[in-house]
Specification:
Elements lengths: L8 E6 L3 H12 L4 E3 L9 H8 L3 E6 L3 H14 L4 E6 L4 H9 L4 E4 L4 H12 L4 E2 L25 H11 L4 H8 L3 H15 L4 H12 L18
Parallel strand pairs: 1-2, 1-3, 3-4, 4-5, 5-6
Helix pairs in contact: 6-8, 7-8
Amino acid sequence: MSIAMAGVTRVLVLADAPVLRRGLAGMIGETAGMQAVGAPGEPRRAVTLAESARPDAVVVELGSGRSETLNACRDLRRRFPRISIVAVATSDDPAVVNEALAAGIRGYLLMNTSATLLGWAVLAARAGRTVVDPQIRRVEGGTVPVVRELTPEVPLTRRESDVLDELVLGQSNRKIGENLFISEDTVKSHVKAILRKLGARDRAHAVSLVLKARTPGCTCGAHDLTAAPAQV
């Protein structure tokens, strides 16, 4: 049996493709306070692998074999109710999201997620919160929430809005610069302006304000995670 390290969140990775397992394990390894444990394997072996690895959380691929994977997640939750499950999925269909949440999955992220957002979702799931990728608009009770935007007293410039969208996706300053073809110093200047205009304490607080405005009434736990890991 693996020896648990104090203060470290132990994460088991489950995915069908070995290359995806390695990629997800690498993302977990990039997050401070997290450690990929056990032998990564197929989602259908969730219970068996969890019995040996004894993880705090599981990151599972939710792709083409969705029904089998969700059944494995249900079995995992019954056998180990304290293990939190975060899915990295191919579908952005709100109906699929709700099906996954009903199966006991606490976090639902898309395949293009960042290491920061993945780590954030794992921590949120461990805290008993539900996190849905900010790129997805969830269906609640058969209706789609009306999307609203923040309206600060001093409007954001177009470039600041672009940077804010990247922040919501959990991108680092360097990655934002690459995506928007601007320097990292310019990104930092835009971030400072965004925080000032939104009245936000930090970038995580700014993201939470955006998510609250865009998805009113949503129960997504990411809205309240003002202590998300900051990227520089």
